[in-house]
């Protein structure tokens, strides 16, 4: 399905704007789509066997000077240049690190999961749906801990 074939009035509205379900298990396509739209969330675009489906939200940059925010907008603003210097596109890099990062039990709790390697850390946060009963995992933060030489 192309971006042009999606009609806004056919899309459900979630906590983070339009909720797109056609990108389940398609993180690369979801990231490209959200980047074009700069709004919304792609439901179950990522998956890890140890926590299940993870939604990707566009999010927002709340303080560009201090690099604060959440979601894909924050990851792009804070880390895209570094990711590109590593030789990756954001839409390729994010799914790789989500899939292959090591779970850090000491830094995780019931509301967030932290996955790390020697060169990156990302955080997946547990959010309540608008009705307060359904929970979902959201890719909410990403850090490159140590720059490779």
Structure, explained:
25% of the residues lie in helices and 35% in strands. It is globular. Residues 1-7 have low confidence and may be disordered. It has one domain (18-143). By secondary structure, it is α+β, with helices and mostly antiparallel strands. The longest helix is centred in the middle third of the chain and has 15 residues, at 71-85. It contains 3 helices and 10 strands. Helix 1 packs across helix 3 (90-100). It has an 8-stranded mixed sheet with strand order 1-2-3-4-10-9-8-7. It has helices at residues 27-37, 71-85, 90-100, and strands at residues 12-14, 17-20, 41-48, 52-57, 60-63, 68-70, 102-103, 112-116, 121-128, 135-143. A hairpin with a 4-residue loop joins strand 5 and strand 6 (68-70). The termini are far apart.
List the main descriptive attributes of the protein structure presented here.
149 residues; alpha+beta; eight-stranded mixed sheet; 3 helices; globular
Q: Indicate the proportion of strand residues.
A: 25-35%
| Cα-based radius of gyration, to the nearest Å | 15 Å
Helix content: 10-25%
Integer count of domains: 1
Q: Sum up the overall morphology in one term.
A: globular
Count of alpha and pi helical runs: 3
| Spatial strand arrangement across the major sheet | 1-2-3-4-10-9-8-7
Return the average pLDDT rounded to an integer.
80
Terminal Cα separation, in Å?
Answer: 40 Å
Sheet with the most strands, sense and barrel status: 8 strands, mixed
Please mark out the parts with pLDDT under 50 across 5 or more consecutive residues, or reply none. 1-7
- Counting DSSP E segments of at least 2 residues, the number of strands comes to 10
Secondary-structure-based class equals alpha+beta
Order of helices and strands: EEHEEEEHHEEEE
């Amino acid at each position: 399905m192309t971006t042009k074939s999606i009609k806004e009035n056919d899309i459900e509205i979630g906590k983070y704007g339009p909720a797109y379900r056609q990108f389940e298990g398609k993180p690369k396509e979801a990231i490209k789509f959200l980047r074009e739209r700069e709004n919304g969330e792609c439901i179950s675009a990522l998956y890890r066997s140890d926590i299940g489906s993870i939604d990707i939200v566009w999010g927002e940059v709340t303080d560009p000077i201090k690099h604060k925010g959440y979601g894909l907008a924050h990851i792009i603003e804070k880390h895209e240049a570094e990711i590109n210097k590593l030789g990756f596109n954001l839409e390729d890099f994010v799914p790789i690190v989500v899939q292959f990062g090591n779970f850090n039990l000491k830094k995780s709790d019931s509301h967030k999961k932290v996955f790390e390697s020697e060169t990156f850390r990302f955080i997946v946060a547990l959010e309540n749906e608008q009705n307060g009963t359904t929970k979902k995992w959201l890719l909410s933060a990403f850090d490159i801990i140590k720059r490779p030489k």
